[in-house]
Specification:
The complex is a heterodimer of chains A (560) and B (528). Chain A has helices spanning 3-10, 45-55, 61-67, 72-80, 119-135, 142-152, 163-176, 181-189, 192-197, 211-221, 232-241, 287-300, 304-317, 324-340, 345-353, 356-359, 371-381, 392-408, 440-454, 467-471, 480-491, 498-508, 516-525, 533-552, and strands at 245-248, 255-258, 268-269, 278-279, 456-458, 461-463. In chain A, the strands form 3 sheets. Chain A has a two-stranded antiparallel ribbon. Among the domains of chain A are: 119-305, no CATH class; 469-558, no CATH class. With 560 residues, chain A is mainly alpha-helical. By secondary structure, chain B is α/β, with parallel strands linked by helices. Chain B folds into 2 domains: 42-372 and 402-424, Alkaline Phosphatase, subunit A, CATH 3.40.720; 442-527, Immunoglobulin-like. Chain B contains 12 helices and 18 strands. Chain B has helices at residues 3-13, 17-24, 33-40, 69-75, 102-109, 128-137, 149-157, 218-246, 261-274, 305-326, 395-406, 411-417; strands at residues 47-53, 63-65, 95-97, 113-120, 175-178, 194-197, 281-286, 333-338, 359-364, 371-373, 393-394, 446-452, 459-466, 469-477, 482-491, 494-501, 508-516, 519-527. In chain B, strands 1, 4, 5, 6, 7, 8, 9, 10 and 11 form a 9-stranded mixed β-sheet that branches. Chain B has a 4-stranded antiparallel β-sheet with strand order 15-14-17-18, with no helix packed on it. Chain B has a 3-stranded antiparallel β-sheet with strand order 12-13-16, with no helix packed on it. In chain B, strand 14 and strand 15 (482-491) form a beta hairpin. In chain B, helix 5 packs across helix 10 (305-326) and helix 8 (218-246) packs across helix 9. The radius of gyration of chain B is 24 Å and the shape is globular. The two termini of chain B are 44 Å apart. Classes of the chains: A mainly alpha (560), B alpha/beta (528).
């Protein structure tokens, strides 16, 4: 039976009740009619962890400690208060492989001349760097939003012949990640990489190219929902509005240029969907800017823009299923907040992340982690020790390993499959489920197993989990039951059953030996003065690795 | 209406056996001879390999209408393949292949290729994503379905999947996609029937977690899904590894591995089939067909981005078919190409083409009728940037032909797989009752004799000839939208004249299409 229909059939008409019991009592849960009103229930560990899991790539114990004890609003405000300082740019990490005559080994290449001979190395550099930005994220929502916008305003680095433009594109995402949607859309429209990727640079009065005009509406602002009724003629008219925008390849890095002789200066008529708007044809050097402003004003007048973006935010942060109830109770009022704020991304996120709907137990633990959240999240949870930034060759090698694993599991950072982004964030009916199949699920487990047992070795450096870093931050790790409970509650979004718990305990206490054995072993392993220190450290370390592996191999670990 | 209940309703209306059984609880019938025969019915061992040309392949530079060169050279001179470079077919239909498709031309000349002209769907959508969904799901242009055409077929045949699978009768995956993703085409009412594989020799044993029931919440549903995936991966890993170990490739025509993704993928498919997998459907894909710019080298139109893709496509198919023959699997395997749309008639200034509409499909293998189905597209003499080719055949006619004539599915079940709609089959397979030869010299059977005046200002007259049968005379606009049906009735053998009032139509090119049975003739009408 259809799941939604099933729930509808068993549910009372409008129960605005919910169980705030711990996750173990799922059977009591009922679907509710919660909306965007601020959540006023208990804001304790479960709620804080839920909020952090959805807004960070994995939760470090220190992230949790940072926010523990604060009010919901304080936490949300802090998560949204992101740094305006841009990350350090990618560097020449390839100097030992190829000579870049314009850039010293270890220095950034983002403002240096284009050099086809080193361009492939720079592409590798910017992609590894991008992954590195995720794993070194600060404990706020910025990284997660950068990925959201990278998926939304998607382009493929490997299609862009100049890595400097790829970097400039990421700067746009970082700059506007929590800014204003209209400003972000404008910046993307004339971003050099995007002008390259969707052929805006070739869109001229003589030979209009519809590629960007189509995706601007279909993917970037209006979506393809039933109420998004722009016409093919609107696509063509929009392409004409955007004629003349181009790239100046002679600057370092290459930059946006407007070539007025390529601009179509006639008036552009739009359909009744846009209120029969006519965008007045302009001439001269400011024609492009003026008409682009008029165009965005016209597009952002349409209610569908906020609705479309709110649906995407919902699918990203809450769950992929948007039925009539969610549309009415969440999407529509949230879109109004978005519009009323003048398209402030911060305003819409604050409302969503503080809403009773977001904290509804019904909506917890139901997001299948995207590959970055699984893999970067793992590195952060385990506080994996990366080489120092002065050892840039090694550091980038490690970032590259992470980037490659993402690629193997469908999330090739910098290179989504196409301009629509990753299918898991738009393709009905599977959505998040399309991350998981017989090919990717084993590789997700391989990633965690690899870094827990073998480690990524380059030269003399091995990137390997030290299980003690995580373990020692937990409460009572010397008591087997407490250690397991603490690992589970920190690493999994839901409780596990007695059999699963017992099999985890079997790792620490094989054959059902009494609990004090682990306590003794733990004490000895953490006390260098203990006569059994060396042996205990060795055996306990292996046990901890297996414990963590077993938790991360559980299906529950794939959920957030 | 929810899709699931829709399909149930339509199945009930058509009294389709397996779904009726489904409704009654198929468990009790598991051992009945009736169900056994349903499960086995004539399709054992038959395999379809679907080749997805992702991005929108330029049909006019793939299957090239040789008789349209003077108008083609006006419309797309900067990307046009020189006429003397087009690869002709042995029986010289008016169309030929891209110069880099020699692999496919050889298949044709050896009687193993069926080309279907101008395949699309009414009211074409120019978005990659919508159009891909339409092709994968088999929906109409204005519908959004969450199940795929193959998923519905497999759901009908392997009732109840995944519950209780693998079975003795079907120990193998129902569908395999080479790559990291499984497509919407394999999506069934409950789960995706497809399994993704990148390397059939290495699998990783997943933890066999608990199989405790999960709660009826979103979290519980996702957890159940994850556990099912883990369980299936483990279950099928062994059979796939065994098949890969047992199977082999015998052709020497495959290019060196790691350079041509399509050939690499098809090589895996051949190996798995030869290794004894009973999986009936495979999907492979080749990307890069979104050739907005630099589709051809400006100095030599037979090389460039699209030519590379054509070479990879033709060579991969030729190697695969050679392999299949050497492996003794010729009677069991057919392949089919598709792309979400063709490209615009008129090229753009960047030596490329924008999103278009109808384009050819190819079906290959020993089981096909050798030939070109349908007439060459008609290229208007004055092409505008908006002009698109009208469809001659609905893509679902090709799907219905595969299900009917290859998988030997009864008409009622084909209808269920097609979402409750009827589509006439085409003479693609030898088992089809119609002959492809009937499509080669169409003019002796149907003809649009004259459209006068043309250009038309207020009205025009269309004179046509037909043999006896039902005749449909339709008018499409330049974007492929159906604007008028002038005739749809039985005609005796003879010549007819019909008036067509063009007042109220926007000026531009229109296509007048005469259809009798599955034969199609199209002419251009210019409205001023």
């Amino acid at each position: 039976m259809d799941r939604t229909a099933f729930f509808e059939s068993i549910l009372p008409a409008s129960p605005k009740t919910q169980s705030s019991n711990e996750a173990g009592k799922k059977s009591l849960m009922r679907r509710t009619n919660t909306g965007i009103s601020a959540y006023t229930g208990t804001f304790a560990k479960d709620e804080l962890m839920h909020l952090l899991r959805r807004t960070l790539f994995g939760v470090k114990v220190s992230d949790y400690n940072l926010y523990k004890g604060k009010t919901l609003e304080q936490v949300v405000d802090a998560l949204l208060n992101v740094s305006t300082t841009l990350p350090n740019p990618p560097i020449n990490n390839y100097g030992n492989l190829v000579n870049d005559p314009n850039v010293p080994y270890g220095s950034t290449w983002v403002n240096a001349a284009l050099d086809p001979a080193v361009e492939p190395y720079r592409k590798g550099s910017v992609k590894s760097w991008f992954w590195g930005q995720m794993v070194t994220q600060s404990p706020d929502i910025q990284a997660k939003m950068v990925l959201f916008w990278h998926n939304h305003f998607a382009l493929q680095f490997l299609e862009i012949p100049d890595s400097r433009a790829c970097y400039v594109y990421t700067k746009v995402l970082y700059t506007h990640a929590l800014g204003n949607l209209k400003d972000l859309t404008r910046a993307i429209t004339i971003d050099p990489a995007m002008l390259f990727y969707l052929n805006g640079r070739l869109n001229t009065k003589k030979a209009p190219d519809e590629n960007y005009a189509r995706e601007l509406q279909e993917l970037f602002t209006l979506g393809k929902g039933p109420n998004s009724k722009y016409t093919e003629d609107d696509v063509k008219a929009m392409a004409r509005v955007l004629t003349g925008w181009s790239i100046n390849p002679l600057t370092n890095p290459f930059s946006t240029a407007f070539v007025s002789v390529n601009h179509d200066s006639s008036d552009k008529q739009f359909s009744s969907f846009y209120g029969n708007t006519v965008i007045k044809g302009q001439t001269g050097i400011n024609a492009g800017n003026t008409e682009l402003d008029d165009l965005l004003t016209m597009i952002f007048k349409v209610d569908e823009v906020a609705l479309f973006l709110c649906r995407k935010l919902y699918e990203y942060f809450v769950y992929y299923e948007i039925d009539d109830t969610v549309e009415t109770n969440v999407i529509v009022p949230l879109a109004k907040v978005f519009r009323d704020s003048g398209y402030s991304i911060k305003a819409v996120l604050k409302t969503l992340l503080m809403s009773e709907h977001f904290f509804d137990t019904w909506n917890r633990a139901c997001v299948i982690k995207d590959p970055l959240t699984q893999q970067v999240g793992f590195c952060r949870e385990m506080e994996l020790k990366f080489p120092s930034s002065s050892d840039y060759f090694l550091l980038y090698q490690m970032y590259q390993m992470g980037m490659n694993f993402g690629q193997l599991t469908q999330l090739n950072l910098g290179d989504p499959p196409n301009v629509a982004g990753w299918p898991a964030w738009y393709q009905k009916p599977l959505f998040h489920r399309s991350w998981i199949n017989s090919d990717t699920l084993p590789k997700r487990n391989q990633f965690t197993d690899y870094l827990l047992f073998i480690g990524h070795k380059v030269g003399t450096y091995t990137l390997l989990v030290d299980p003690w870093i995580f373990t020692k931050q937990l409460t009572n790790p010397g008591k087997a039951d407490d250690l397991i409970a603490a690992c589970v509650s920190h690493l999994l979004p839901m409780s596990i059953n007695a059999t699963q718990t017992a099999s985890l305990k079997e790792i620490l206490l094989p054959g059902g030996i009494p609990d004090y054995n682990w306590s003794d072993e733990y004490r000895a392993a953490t006390d260098p003065s203990d006569p059994n220190y060396t042996t205990a450290l060795s055996t306990a370390t292996v046990k901890l690795r297996y414990l963590l592996k077993s938790i991360m191999n559980l299906s529950e670990y794939q959920l957030s | 209406m929810k899709r699931r209940s829709f399909f149930k309703a339509s199945a009930a209306a058509g009294t389709v056996l397996p779904l009726t059984l489904n409704g009654m609880g198929v468990k009790t019938f598991e051992d009945s001879p009736l169900l056994q025969s349903l499960g086995r019915r004539g399709t054992d061992g038959k395999v379809l390999v679907i080749i997805n040309l992702s991005g929108g392949n330029d049909g006019l530079n793939t299957l090239i209408p040789i008789d349209q060169y003077s108008n083609l050279s006006k419309a797309r001179n900067n990307i046009l393949i020189p006429e003397d470079k087009v690869l002709p077919f042995w029986n010289k239909p008016a169309a030929g292949l891209h110069p880099k498709l020699s692999g496919m031309r050889d298949l044709y000349n050896n009687g193993m290729l069926s080309a279907i002209q101008a395949v699309g769907y009414p009211n074409p959508n120019y978005s990659h994503f919508r159009s891909t969904d339409i092709w994968m799901s088999g929906s109409d242009s204005n519908e959004s379905w969450t199940t795929g055409w193959m998923g519905r077929y497999l759901d009908g045949k392997y009732t109840g999947y995944p519950k209780g699978y693998p079975t003795t009768a079907m120990p193998d995956p129902l569908a395999i996609q080479i790559g990291q993703m499984v497509s919407l085409a394999f999506m069934g009412p409950e789960v995706n029937m497809g399994m993704a594989i990148t390397d059939p020799t290495t699998f990783y044993n997943l933890a066999n977690g608990t199989t405790d029931p999960t709660s009826n919440t979103p979290a519980g549903n996702e957890l159940a899904f994850l556990r099912l995936m883990a369980q299936q991966t483990n279950q099928y890993a062994t059979v796939i590894q065994n098949a890969a170990a047992k199977g082999s490739n015998k052709s020497t025509k495959y290019p060196t591995g790691g350079r041509q993704p399509l050939a690499d993928q098809l090589k895996i498919v051949a190996k798995l089939i030869s290794g004894g997998l009973k999986t009936p459907v495979y999907m492979v894909s080749l990307g890069g067909f979104d050739t907005h710019s630099e589709q051809v080298d400006s100095a030599d139109h037979t090389i460039g981005g699209h030519a590379t893709l054509m070479q990879q496509l033709g060579d991969a198919i030729a190697a695969f078919q050679d392999d299949i023959k050497l492996l003794g699997l010729e009677d069991r395997v057919v392949g089919m190409t598709f792309s979400e749309f063709g490209r615009r008639v008129m090229s753009n200034a960047s030596n490329g083409t924008d999103h278009g509409a109808a384009a050819p499909m190819f079906v290959f293998g020993k089981a096909v009728q050798n030939g070109v189905i349908g007439a060459n597209p008609t290229i208007p003499s004055t092409v505008t940037v908006n002009d698109n080719l009208p469809m001659q055949y609905d893509f679902r006619q090709v799907y219905a032909s595969v299900l009917t004539d290859w998988f030997e599915l009864p008409a009622a079940e084909v209808k269920v797989a097609m979402g409750g709609k009827d589509f006439n089959t085409l003479p693609i397979f030898k088992s089809n009752k119609a002959r492809v030869e009937d499509y080669i010299d169409l003019v002796s059977r149907i003809a649009l004799n004259k459209i006068y005046p043309n250009p038309a200002v207020d009205k025009t007259q269309i004179s046509y000839f037909t043999e006896s049968g039902n005749v449909k005379l339709s008018v499409f606009d330049a974007s492929g939208q159906l604007v008028r049906i002038l005739k749809d009735e039985w005609h005796g053998h003879g010549t007819y004249v019909v008036d067509f009032d063009v007042v109220g139509l926007r000026s531009g090119n229109y296509y007048v299409q005469l259809a009798q049975g599955e034969k199609r003739i199209t002419e251009v009408l210019l409205v001023q």
